[in-house]
Amino acid sequence: MQQLEDKLIQWRRDFHQYPETGFMEMRTASIVASILDKLGFQLKMGKEVMSEADCMGKPTEEETKKHYQWAQKNGAIDDYLNPFSEGYTGIVATLDTGKKGPIIAYRFDMDALDILESDSNEHFPHNEGFSSKVHGKMHACGHDSHTSMGLGLATLLIENKEELKGKIKLIFQPAEEGTRGAKAMAAANIVEDVDYFIATHIGVGVPHKQFVAANSGFLATSKLDITYDGTAAHAGGSPEEGKNALLAAAASVLSLHGISRHSGGATRINVGQLEAGAGRNIIANHASMKVETRGETSEINDYVKEQVTSVVSGAATMYQVEHNIETVGEALSCKCSLDLAGILHKCAEASPDIEISQLEDNTPGGSEDATYFMNEVQKNGGKATYCVFGTELAAGHHNEKFDIKEDTLLPAVNILFQSVKVIMEQ
């Protein structure tokens, strides 16, 4: 196992140095695909496993081409790069044992964040020489670890193939940040035949050497890009000729934060960014806002989103400007299948590396688009859960000093592998 642990750390540190944000994971995906292919998995990649119509918040064609060139120069595997050249960077790797049995799927996300990594002497990746080589981008949420764990699980599956039955799918997902990538993969029907689905995360507040088998506390969410377009005019000479997009945006910001809460559960609303205007003496003809809604259930989130639409259109009418609302990310609420979680819980309890295993934690928190996969599997009669491997964090998720304990990687892989063996006997 020492050799596998060394590989896990090597993979994680390599991915950490070359972070790629959503739909840009070309270098990462090409390396993952090359390893999985050499191991003997059947691969489907790119548009084969992603619905173009369901991709949200995808970078422009120009940005995508530029990043493709960057990937070519920074360690991407040329023989596997082409399927990802247009920014459809998902992978589904299948191991068919040739024996009758269940179909099990595991999801691992690959994307990084637009964060400048710390160069502090106290920051472990900086001291060890594997901090981000890409200015303004870093793996600040552990997805480099998740990708490595997926490759580690793939390695154990192949090494023990003769003991297994059924099929195992390993899903390497782009663009989890901003909840953008899973919907497109789910819409491509990659989990329609899956009996058991497991998504994983590292950290998220779970202490080192602890494990949560079912995290159902994710809030449904919508990420919205909103624009107002009016008419520019001289603010001193002819203000009456202008249609002020800035005022429409400002009015909507205040009203959005005043949306009534819902009696059915928790709600959230946040305007995270507002940009408007071109100069102090010009009636602003354009304004843009980045907004997110959240709800304890998908239905509650839909309620908040509907209120946002009403507020935004009302402000547009009031100031006689045009408006547009684009959904650039979305995730559902979901409840884990506790019988499947129970299997993972027992596997963790049997692990010498886990001190405390918890069956369920429903504390409301952030959002996760793995819920698209989970809902799809459950809708078709299958079971799904979202588990968390605890680790010691140097700083919180989405922080410039984020880092994990690398001794979490191998135990996590072993527990996932044990879950395969137990599920196959169900």
From TrEMBL:
Residue positions binding Mn(2+): C141, H143, E177, H201, H398
Cofactor needs: Mn(2+)
Any single GO CC term annotated in Swiss-Prot or TrEMBL for this entry: cytoplasm
Gene3D superfamilies, sorted: Zn peptidases (3.40.630.10)
One Gene Ontology MF term: dipeptidase activity
Residue ranges of domain Peptidase M20 dimerisation in the record: 225-313
Stored InterPro entries: Amidohydrolase, Bact_exopeptidase_dim_dom, Peptidase_M20, Peptidase_M20/M20A_hydrolases, Peptidase_M20_dimer
Entry keyword set: Hydrolase, Manganese, Metal-binding
Co-factor note (free text): The Mn(2+) ion enhances activity.
GO annotation, biological process: folic acid catabolic process
Top-level taxon in the UniProt lineage: Bacteria
Protein name from the UniProt record: Indole-3-acetyl-aspartic acid hydrolase
Organism (species): Oceanobacillus picturae
Lineage of the species this protein comes from: Bacteria, Bacillati, Bacillota, Bacilli, Bacillales
Gene from which the chain derives: iaaH
